[in-house]
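Lab meeting, item 3. Inverse folding demo.
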């Protein structure tokens, strides 16, 4: 009985201290510590979208990439972008009562497309460049803000993932 307990404890101990395998890499180059996220050019008719995209991108690169905010002149990397498309009202689900009855939209989706680049200030090397990055967010009628939030979350996740995967 004691032998079984000792063997089990030894096995657990070896399991806990055993394999120290892990992945290194990812993230940005070590010399990049600060960022300037410039206001995104907004080519859409939605005046508030530019500010929302800019804020979401800035928060993501600061929190998730660990960069500190700086002025454009002092930043290690500069983020520039354009919002090239915004389609806020695409019906996706319907409900109704067959022939002669009314049909009601039960779900809608919106789509946002941006172009973005992250450039190292010191030597001009391109950290990230995406000419067309799109995201969709679905929502219930009257709750467009929910769809926009989903689309922005997808966009910033894609930006962070792409920036990290380059290095």
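The presenter then showed the designed sequence:
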């Amino acid at each position: 009985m004691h032998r079984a307990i000792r063997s089990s404890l030894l096995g657990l101990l070896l399991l806990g201290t055993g394999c120290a395998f892990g992945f290194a890499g990812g993230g940005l180059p070590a010399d990049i510590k600060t960022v300037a996220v410039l206001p995104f050019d907004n080519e859409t008719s939605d005046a508030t979208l530019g500010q929302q995209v800019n804020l979401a991108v800035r928060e993501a690169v600061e929190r998730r990439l660990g960069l500190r905010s700086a002025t454009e002149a002092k930043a290690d990397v500069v983020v520039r972008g354009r919002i090239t498309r915004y389609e806020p009202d695409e019906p996706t689900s319907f409900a109704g009562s067959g022939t002669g009855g009314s049909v009601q939209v039960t779900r809608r989706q919106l789509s946002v497309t941006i172009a973005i680049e992250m450039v190292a200030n010191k030597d001009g090397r391109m950290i990230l460049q995406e000419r067309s990055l799109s995201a969709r967010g679905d929502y219930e009628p009257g709750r467009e803000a929910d769809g926009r939030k989903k689309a922005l979350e997808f966009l910033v996740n894609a930006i962070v993932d792409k920036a990290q995967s380059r290095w």
